[in-house]
Amino acid sequence: MPKMNLSHFEAALLFALFTSVVLGIVTKKTDAERIRYGLRSFAYFILVLFGLGWLMYFGHG
Predict the structure, then answer these.
(1) How far is CA 9 from CA 14, 30, 40, 52, in A?
(2) pLDDT of residue 23
(3) 40-49: per-residue pLDDT in tens?
């Protein structure tokens, strides 16, 4: 089986994607709510990812 060499950013994106899908499926009842909640939680994950990235960048400055 080939090895996957993911950067930290790519691994964080995959985590955000899979977690958002699971949260959308588990927490909402209708398909429309699931999709909307999954997309919103994915956007929040990405927003936090960039925010923490910039915070660490300026913290190490």
Answers:
(1) 9, 31, 19, 12
(2) 96
(3) 999 999 999 9
